[in-house]
Amino acid sequence: MDEFRDAGLIRQAAAEIRKLARPDKHYRLMEVCGGHTHAIYRFALEDILPDNIDLIHGPGCPVCVLPMGRVDDGLSLAADPKVILTAFGDMMRVPGRNGSPLEHKARGADIRMVYSPLDALKLAQKYPDREVVFFAIGFETTAPSTALTLRQARALGVKNFSVFCNHVTIIPAIRAILDSPDMRIEGFIGPGHVSTVIGCRPYEFICRDYGKPLVTSGFEPLDVLQSIVMILRQLADGEARVENQYARVVPWEGNLAALKAMAEVFELRPYFEWRGLGFISQSALRLRDSYADWDAERRFAVPGIRVTDPKAAQCGEVLKGVLKPHECKLFGRECTPELPVGALMVSSEGACAAHYNYALRKTAAATVQA
């Protein structure tokens, strides 16, 4: 990775950006993926960009876009003493109405952190007298691992394992952003992780229907800067195409084996609620009828809770790119990583967590040194 952090190459890319950015024009570029947001803050990339380039944080954090009601639905399963609820580490501190999974665990619920859905399946095999539920979350990046685990569960005949499916898809979210009347975006830094699965072709509608360029990007500082260069070159030439800066990892057509596994196990939900974006049609996955025996929503009485975020929290505006994290009224005061009000302050891909851990602390350190 050394070449992607090379100071000389980074300076060259920054100089190219300054050369391409017209001083009379304001550029609003959205990085869709939360991993890019963290890279931008971690490496202080905004500090070397011209003032007329504004990086907007998009809805590419799957933990962040999950509405509070779905968190409460998952926690309702853990209220059954026969259930072991399992989840990724990011989910453990996401607040529901009455606390996070970690807080419910402290109150006695059997909730366990796992590193993969296969870990949850192993727990089901270890405890055949318990019901093990995996709280599945993520974009197309993590959906294949859930699909393969379900195939394994069926092949092994493990009947005490099920999935509470909250997998979402990236394309409808981007379309919702583009259709938002208060959003003005000149181009997209396309998600790298999701694209390793779905490839680059699904983004072509952004260029064809909306006239916006998109460059799929890696996560090192030079990756992000090179992607911005590629977007600015398109804008300068009056073009709008999908380009793949992350070709060393992302195949143009995607991972066909992963897509096949997903198609076997999942189908699209008619509607699904997103935090900040509302209900979006065809934007999330559910288990097909052939996997109904492993579907937690069919096996248990999931209440289907709907609840709004705390009124003072502005998670939705940050997710849509309308506000920067520090512009939220609660940021860094009532809402911190230690005592989060919203999911954006918890997730390893959350924009608020990135701004707090890198930008805010950097400013505080500079103030102390002064």
What's the total number of strands? 13
Order of helices and strands: HEHEHHEHEHEHEHEHHEHEHEEEEHHH
| CATH architecture descriptor of the largest domain | 3-Layer(aba) Sandwich
- Mean pLDDT over the residues: 92
How far apart, in Å, are the first and last alpha carbons? Answer: 34 Å
CATH topology-level name of the largest domain: Rossmann fold
CATH superfamily of the largest domain: HypD, alpha/beta domain 2
Query: Looking at the structure, what is the overall shape?
Result: globular
Helix content: 25-40%
Poorly predicted sequence stretches spanning 5 or more consecutive residues: 364-370
- Total domain modules: 3
The strand order across the widest sheet is: 2-1-7-8-9
Number of helical stretches of at least 4 residues: 15
CATH class of the largest domain: Alpha Beta
Main sheet characteristics: 5 strands, parallel
Helical/strand content category: alpha/beta
The oligomerization state is single chain
Q: Roughly how many Å is the radius of gyration?
A: 21 Å
